[in-house]
Every structure is written in C-alpha cells, then in structure tokens.
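The records we work with from here on pair a chain with its fold. Taken together, the tokens spell out the fold as the letters spell out the chain. The record below shows the convention in full.
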Amino acid sequence: MARPSLPVVFRDTPVLGGGPGRGPEPDSKDRSESPAPARLACAHLPAFPLQVLLRRRPELRGAPVAVLSREGPHGEVLWASQAARRRGVARGMRCAAARSLVPELHAEPVPEDILAAATDELLRALLRRSPRVEPCADPRGAFWLDPSGLERLQGDLPTWAGGLRRDLEALGYAAGVAVGFSRFSTLALARHGSLAAPLVLASPAEEAARAGAVPLAALDLSPVLQDTLEKLGISTLGGFLALPAAEVRTRLGSAAAALHARAGGREHAPLRPAELDDPPELALEIDPPDDDRERLLFALKEPLACLLRQVCIGGDALVQVRLTLELDHEDPAVTTVEPAAPLQAEPDDLLQLLDLLRLRLDNLVLAAPVKRAVLVGLGARARAEQLALLRGRGRDLAAAARALARVRAAFGEQAVTRAALRSAHLPEASFAWEPVSEVTCPIVHDLPANHHEALAAPPLCRRLLPRPLPLPRRDEADEHWLAASGLVRGAVVRMAGPYRVSGGWWAREVERDYYFAETVHGDIAWLFYDRPRDRWYLHGILD
C-alpha cells in the first residue's frame, strides 16, 4: 500500500546559544515588533489546455494526444501528452508533421470558451480555500492565493496546501502548489516543483535559494532568449538574476529586462483578487417530499416568477434556468431549461418558461420524492432587437424558435441540429452536425433560364451512413453479395464507376474507388473499394 504524500516544509535550522563574537540574542519584545513577511501561494496546472481536453475526453488518457492552435493539418502543436512526446511530437510542430510520426495521434484545438469555463470552475473551487484568488493570464492555468488568516479554519500552511491540492485532484486536475512570499518565485517553484506534494517555504531566504536553482527550461522562455542564455552558460534562474540589470536590457532586449525585473522582485504588484458575480438563486422546501409533476410545477411557479424578476433587474434578460431537485435519500437530479430567446419579466415570457419547465419535468426520471428545489437563473445583456418582440406578417421566426426550444426541453439539447459544411476531401468529413441556436429564413436562389431542363435531371441525394459499413469480400459470381449489408435488396445488375478519391498523405493514406451499384429491385447503393486496405465498404444509399 502506497504511503500518503505529505507537504514538504523547509525551515531555518535554529542556532542554540551564542559563540565568540556573537551579539546578544534579541528579546521577545524585539522579535514581536518585526512584522512577518506577507504570505503568497501559487497553484499551477501544467499543460492546462491539455488537461482540460483530457478531462472532457477521459477515454484519451494514456493515448498520444496534442492540443493544436487551430483545426487542420497546418495547426501548430501547443501541448502534447507524454505518450505523444515519447514518439517525437514536440511543441511548435505542425499537425501534419506530428501525424506523420504518430498516425493515430488525436489532435484538436481547445476553444477559448471551454478554457474560460474551466478557469471559472477552478476559480470557484479555489475561493473555498481562500477569499482572495487571482488567476494568472500568462501562463494559463496558474492562480495566486492569499493563505493568511486561515489557520483557525483550515489548519497550518502545510495542511492548507495539502487540502488545496486535494481539491484540484477531486476536479480531475494535476497541479503543483507552492507557498512562499513573492509572485514570480512561487510560480517558478510551483511549475518546477514535484506534483507529488505541496512545497511550503518558511522564509524569504529559503524561497530565494530554492527559486534560484529552478532551471530556465521550466520557465517557458522564448526559444531565442533561452538559446542565448545557454550559450552564455546560464541554465538556472539564479544565474540569470546574477546578471547586471542594465546589461540585460542592453544586450538581451526589453523582454528579457522585464523578466529580470519580475524575477528579481523589483516589479511588485499587490494581489488583485477576482470577483465572481453569483447568479440569482432561490430555494424551495417541499414538505412532505413529493414526486407529482403537476404539484411540483405549481409550487415552482411563484419562485420562478421571482427569479425572472431578479435576473431582469438592471436590463438583463434570462437565458437559462438551472434546476436542482434534492431527492429523499437519493442523489440530486439536475436539469437546465433554455428559452429560444432571452426572456423579460413579462407574463407571456413567464408562461413560456413554465411550459418549457413542464416539458422538462415530464421527461425527468426521479428516483425518489423531491424534498427541496433550487433554481438558479443565468442572465445576459440582451440586444434591442431581441427584446422588441415585433411581430410582422409572413414567417414567424420567433414562433419557430419557441417551438424548437420546446423540442430541446422535451428531448435534450442535441435534439435539434443542422448540417454545417466543412473543408475536407472525404465525403463523411465534408459536413458536421451542430446544434441550432437561432432560426433563420432559407436563402432562395433564382432558377436558371433553362430550369425546366435542369429539373429534368435533379441532383443525386445521398443518404450517408454514420460510418462506412464493411462489406464481405466481393465475389464476381455472387450477385447478392451486396444484400448481405441488410440495407440493399436483391442482386446487383449494374455498377457505374470507378470515381477516384485520394489524398490524406499528411495523416493517413486514402485511396478509394467509388461505385454506384443498382440492384434488381431498383435500389442504388454508393460504395467504395479501399485500395490500401483491400476491402469494400457501403457508404450510402441514393434516395
């Protein structure tokens, strides 16, 4: 059984007694009058975007994974997992080059909104450990905390730091934690320190000594600056700080001078704690516990109206309601309701919200009666055209949006989607399904002058399968070999093709020969022969 890791504490060794030439010991009064230096802690999550991706996709843990700057073969690798680095994938490499080394590499960008949501979640978790937390803009995934004054609530500094690290582990993140006295040193030690246990330093001298031994490679310097310092024989932060400040600016540039000033403590900035605006929240006790949907909806009507008024104070509009139903001796049930457009504190808007909530409750499985309901309303600054509610003649897009909102409330957020085009050479990758958030009128194109002739031969409508279906090996003498798929009836009487699709040299070789196969029953299948894999696949059916 592995021994639990304990925080590492560095303390000055006391000197007992006095020696020759040693001055008298200061009395307790002198010691109490010298103020203790202010404490500062830093929590750093290494490769933060990669950790966010693996937290969202746990099935990728242990596999070669990379985070890209943008989608496509020319996207730059920003972060790579250990399995990918072992096989040669490095930061700054193009996605095409990385996949040439690791064909099965999973590479994708992490959108900014996902990173922002993860940062907000971490900030809320860290605020439970300290009321003063400041997120670091560079590097992303680092936070400074004020640990002072929490001893009576959360124990001494090693205990507090250990609890902080356990909170981050419970959220699924690996983090380095350092408790010291200055911004740059705690960040450097948290980045370079071991992830096995927090690092708690007892004095500024200890901090300076430990930070001076941090390798420059752990600070993520620019490649040009790091290469220049390596040529000078400087490999640690202490060696860099030993350079004269004036010479650093003259010989290495303003960026190196700014780094030298921050690392040397000459640029001191007080902690700027972040402030979170908690959304309006209302709770309703249900006594005795009840699981009848109609009675629950009736009980929630007045709190929902009150929540709508609170959100709309100051000109905001309601965009989402999060409902948490605390069950009797069971885990809570959590659901959300999103209207088609931002809602105001109007009777019609309240009726629409109640209708959506009723649909969501009808499809919610409750393992036990509800004893408490918590409503949280999320608001946003609505545009003037969203609040105008002008109803004109013709198509009512607002009514269509409300109808789709009801469908989402009844069947889930992914129930309403539409196809969006993508630039890809393979047919199955040339489009993707995305949620519909706004209803728009279709774009009408003018018919050509010879539209009668054009309509005589309408375009082919292919119904693609979600994945190409492997077919048994083709036998020229067996006319029913395609019927084994279960999607096409009868014997094949005619085949048209091949139509070559090739490419993918930057990731995985693709070489397909596409055919149209017509059966005796009139079914037309769209299939291809995969040359590198020597196999037939059914890709779709013509309607």
In short: The longest strand covers residues 316-327. Residues 134 and 272 are 6 Å apart (CA to CA). The two ends are 62 Å apart (CA to CA). DSSP finds 18 helices and 20 strands in the chain.
